[in-house]
Amino acid sequence: MAKLLSEINKVDIAIVPASINNVSTGPYYNLGLRNKALFVWETGAMAAGVTSVAQVMQAQDAAGTGAKPVTNNAATITANTKVAAATLTVDTVVATNKVTVNGLVFEAAANADLAKRKFAVGAADADCATSLAAAINHATAGVPGVTASANAAVVTLTVDEPGEMTITITDATAVRIVPATLRAIGYVECDTAFLDEGFNYVALRITNSAAALTGAILVRGENRYSPLTNQVAAAKVDVEP
Questions:
Q1: Which of 84, 109, 177, 227 is the most exposed place for a label (fewest CB within 10 A)?
Q2: Domain-by-domain residue ranges, the chain?
Q3: Whole-angstrom Cα distance, residue 166 to residue 191?
């Protein structure tokens, strides 16, 4: 029988979920017995313009002695760019105000024409949000793979098949249509070949440009020796009878 994922990969906490504003570095883990480290980090709500940068750090021991960045081993999550879920908040929208979702432009008008991606300004913000959501959900002119739902003045966008696509919002009319990220995910991968001589420990450093709920895990793989034991609080594996 093929080995289980939990038998060939070591899973650990890289960053304890917290609201991080500026810089936070997690614990250093030994990569000496494994060839690869994959850090996966997730952010919660992020306002437009906010970034979350993940940088792999290297050190000589678990205490972080000699800590320094691994060269060319960083990635950046930018709010509203390739995210898992987002919102659009409308505020006294007027005709010609626009927002672009996954490359499709939606424009406000006095009257809705959803087939042409025009949504109605409406008598109130809630009406406008409802019309915008309907435009995004339109069977032929809407955004493929994305579902919009309106609640008061807020339109929430989610992907229909989690993990299979993302949402990018651009060109929103400032103040009138305000985009924000609900959640996003990213990763950085490191190979032992990237580390300097004598540096066998790795950690994740998160730098957020504004406060954002952020957490991360570390997956270490390609073990040089076996068996592998995951040190976790709980585990369950379904196996063949």
A1: 227
A2: 5-79+184-223, 85-167
A3: 27
Q: Taking the CB of residue 163, how many other CB atoms lie within 10 A of it?
A: 8
Say whether 71 sits in a helix, a strand or coil: strand
pLDDT tens-digit series, residues 182-223: 999 999 999 999 999 999 999 999 999 999 999 999 999 876
| Residues present in the chain in total | 241
Report d(CA 70, CA 103) in Å as an integer: 35
Q: Please give the Cα distance from 232 to 193 (Å, whole number).
A: 28
Q: Edge-to-edge strands of the sheet including 104-109?
A: 118-120, 104-109, 98-101, 169-170
Q: Report which of 100, 169, 160 is spatially closest to residue 135, judged by C-alpha positions.
A: 100
Q: What is the pLDDT of residues 152-193, one digit of tens each?
A: 999 999 999 999 999 999 999 999 999 999 999 999 999 999
pLDDT tens-digit series, residues 88-120: 999 999 999 999 999 999 999 999 999 999 999
Radius of gyration of the chain (CA): 22
Which among 21, 20, 81 is positioned nearest to 48, based on CA atoms?
81
Q: Are 67 and 59 in contact (CB under 8 A)?
A: yes
* pLDDT value of position 102: 98
Cβ-count burial 127-152 (b if 16+ within 10 Å, e if not): bbbbbbbbbbbbeebbbeebebebee
Q: Which residue has the tokens 């960045």?
A: 69
CATH fold of 5-79+184-223: Jelly Rolls (2.60.120)
Identify whether the C-beta of residue 53 lies closer than 8 Å to the C-beta of residue 207: yes
Q: What is the pLDDT of residue 224?
A: 60
